[in-house]
Every structure is written in structure tokens, then in C-alpha cells.
Design brief:
This protein has two domains: 229 residues, P-loop containing nucleotide triphosphate hydrolases (Rossmann fold), CATH 3.40.50.300; 113 residues, Nucleic acid-binding proteins (OB fold (Dihydrolipoamide Acetyltransferase, E2P)). The protein contains nine helices and 19 strands. The structure holds adenosine-5'-triphosphate and magnesium ion. Adenosine-5'-triphosphate binds next to helix 1.
Length: 360
């Protein structure tokens, strides 16, 4: 059990002058499952490896359980890591694979067996203990890799895209099992993924990175409803939030396709204060709806997903053709080529030229 803290921690790789992780400030609570998410190259693995002690911290500090571990070697940090390419030893049985680290640490055989059996019970692997990895399914192999981490009773679990070798269906199932397992064990866990759906479904809190810089860290619902900047707004949510540039005048009003965008009073007040300029309007597909009036457009694509459908509607905005994605119900009768009207039906977001959120 432990809390983790990054304090202005940076990693600058030799031969580069841009920080791969730039002055990261982040606290992970005891027992929390925190997900680090961001596009490829955003510094997720680097941040995790800094915590593991596998990557030198050039500036700042890292604490585990209140102890400064910035200069502590990896083996003395009491952490266990599960990687994307979890290589199991092919010639060893599941039990031997799971007990290997304990054997190396010279844990007596009886205690070793006990810890392996306990982990196997938790992971539902008891009947496979004598099998070789090649006789297991992908999901079972993944659980053995988890087992190797669990048997060590570490203070912190670190996981770097541990599910990316699994097919889509197994991944969805395994991520639920993993989240459940983490909750039962109550071990502080930092989990890296580039998949924002995985991040949102698993994380107690989610930290979004871009170009090595922490953008926002909060509960999934807050990231979704209150993205602090344009990047987070566009990154979190599938399909993505509609983001369109528009001019604001002195009165702080904004229009999309000639129709006034409904804005919270604090947004309008902030826009008036900031003054006229080019802003970005954001609205999620489920906060738009077809109706008798609204922005006129033509349906170009209908994506039917069964429980819902997403319509791509080509509209005219400031003299140019652009697309709005609108969520419709599953039994939509709307077809490609239909002329429709799109109205606002929920919150909108506004972002300033520097990308920051306007209003509260
Ligand atoms: N050993 C290295 N030497 C120099 N630069 C590196 C090294 N490892 C990573 N980088 C760079 O640091 C940045 C962050 O890399 P990192 O692997 O942390 O990204 P990531 O978010 O894990 O990406 P991915 O989703 O592709 O795994 C990238 O620009 C990468 O090119
Ligand atoms: Mg990575």
C-alpha cells in the first residue's frame, strides 16, 4: 500500500533537447488505479519508467509512500511491472513462471508455493498451474503475467499497455477483470494506455498527457464534461467532440452555420472580457439533435451501431462546407442524402486561441 508522487519530474533523453516528460506534477492516492493516457510519443511509457527507476529523472523528484526514491535502484522500489510484451518463459510451467521472481529473491519453497497458489486462486488460474504457456489462451497468458506481479505483493503495480496483444473482445473482458482485480487487491496502480475508452472505463482518475506535458487529471466524468482545453476535448470521447472555429463579436455571441450557439452566462461574460476574436466551439454528438429547425445540412454518412447511430451532416459554416457528427437513436430512419436540421440539445464548450477553456 502506497501513495505515489511526481514532483516537477522531467526526463530529457540524451541527445535531445525537448523533455519527453516535462515537469510532471502528479499524485496517485493509496489504492488508486490511475490511468496515464495520451497519443503515441506523449511520454506515457517514459513517465512510468521514471517511476520504476528504469529511466533517469533529470529534474524534480519521485516519492513512493513518502520516501524520495528518485535515486533508488529499481529493485529496491518495491514495485512490479507488467509490460505489453509480457514474455513468459516457454519451458517453465505456469507455477514456475509465477514463482520465478520469488525464487530469485531466495524465498523458501514452501512460502513460494503458498504465494503462487494464492495468486492463482485470485486470477482463476489454479487448474493451469502445471501447464506450459504455449497451451494457454492469450487471456490466460496475460493473467499469468499479472500473476508474476501479484505474487511479489508489491507496493505499486505499473502496467504499460498490458492488453494490447489481445483481440478486441478479449481486451474488453480482460480490462474489466483487471479493474476488478485491482479493486480487490487495493494495490496502487499506474496503468498506461493510448486507448481513451480503456482509460475512461478503468481509471479511478485519468491523467492526459500531450507532448510530455500533463494536460488534465481528474475523474473520467469530469474529463468528459469539463475538458480544460481543446486537446482534452478532442482526445476524450468517441466519436470525438465536434470542434469548429468561429468568430466572436463584442457581444460575446457565437454562431455555427448561422445559428446562435447556446452559451452558459459565465462563458458569455468571459468572451466579452476577452474581446472579439477567433474561438473554437465544441459540442458532443449526443448534444446535437435533429429537429424542425436548426442548422440546415445534408446527411453524408449514417453509421448504424445498433443501439445508436451517428450521422455525418454536411453544413455550411462561414461560407465553407464542414461536417457535424450527430448522435441519433438506433432505429433511425434518416438516410444518406436526406436534408436535415441540427439543433443544440445540451452543453457546449468554447476554447480560446491558446486552446484553454473559456468560462468555468
Ligand atoms: N531512449 C530514447 N531516446 C530518445 N528519445 C526517446 C527514447 N525513448 C523515447 N523517446 C522519445 O520520448 C518521447 C516519449 O516517448 P514514450 O515512449 O514515453 O511515449 P509513449 O507515450 O509511451 O508512446 P506510445 O503510445 O507510442 O508507446 C517520444 O518523442 C520518443 O520518441
Ligand atoms: Mg509507450
Amino acid at each position: 500500500m502506497a501513495e505515489v508522487r511526481y514532483e516537477a519530474a522531467s526526463r530529457i533523453y540524451p541527445g535531445t533537447d525537448i523533455a519527453a516528460v516535462d515537469s510532471l506534477d502528479l499524485e496517485i492516492e493509496d489504492g488508486e488505479l490511475l490511468v496515464l493516457v495520451g497519443p503515441s510519443g506523449s511520454g506515457k511509457s517514459t513517465a512510468l519508467r521514471m517511476l520504476a527507476g528504469l529511466e533517469h529523472v533529470n529534474e524534480g523528484s519521485i516519492y513512493i509512500d513518502g520516501d524520495d526514491v528518485t535515486l533508488t535502484p529499481p529493485q529496491d522500489r518495491d514495485i512490479a511491472m507488467v509490460f505489453q510484451n509480457y514474455a513468459l518463459y516457454p519451458s517453465m510451467t505456469v507455477a514456475e513462471n509465477m514463482g520465478f521472481a520469488l525464487k530469485q529473491a531466495k524465498v523458501p519453497k514452501a512460502q513460494r508455493m503458498e504465494q503462487v497458489r494464492e495468486a492463482a486462486r485470485i486470477l482463476d488460474l489454479e487448474e493451469y498451474l502445471d501447464r506450459k504457456p504455449k497451451n494457454l489462451s492469450g487471456g490466460q497468458r496475460q493473467r499469468v503475467a499479472m500473476g508474476r506481479a501479484i505474487v511479489r505483493h508489491p507496493k505499486v503495480f505499473l502496467m504499460d499497455e498490458p492488453l494490447s496483444n489481445l483481440d478486441a473482445k478479449l481486451r474488453v473482458q480482460t480490462r474489466t477483470e483487471l479493474a476488478d482485480l485491482q479493486a480487490r487487491l487495493g494495490v496502487t496502480t499506474v496503468y498506461v494506455t493510448h486507448d481513451q475508452v480503456e482509460a475512461m472505463t478503468m481509471g479511478h482518475r485519468v491523467a492526459v498527457l500531450n507532448f510530455g506535458v500533463l494536460q488534465q487529471v481528474d475523474r473520467p466524468s469530469v474529463l468528459y464534461s469539463h475538458p480544460v482545453n481543446r486537446f482534452v476535448a478532442g482526445f476524450i470521447g468517441s466519436p470525438a467532440m465536434n470542434l469548429l472555429d468561429a468568430d466572436a463579436g463584442e457581444d460575446g455571441a457565437l454562431t455555427l452555420g448561422g445559428v446562435a450557439v447556446p452559451l452558459e452566462p459565465d462563458v458569455t461574460a468571459d468572451l466579452r472580457e476577452r474581446g472579439p476574436g477567433r474561438y473554437t466551439v465544441g459540442v458532443r454528438p449526443e448534444h446535437l439533435q435533429l429537429g424542425a429547425d436548426g442548422i440546415a445540412g445534408e446527411v453524408t454518412v449514417v453509421e448504424e451501431l445498433g443501439s445508436e447511430a451517428f450521422l455525418h451532416v454536411a453544413i455550411q459554416h462561414e461560407g465553407e462546407s464542414t461536417v457535424l457528427v450527430v448522435r441519433d437513436h438506433g432505429e433511425t430512419s434518416t438516410k444518406r442524402g436526406d436534408t436535415v436540421h441540427v439543433g443544440f440539445d445540451g452543453p457546449t464548450h468554447v476554447f480560446a486561441p491558446d486552446g484553454g477553456r473559456v468560462g468555468g
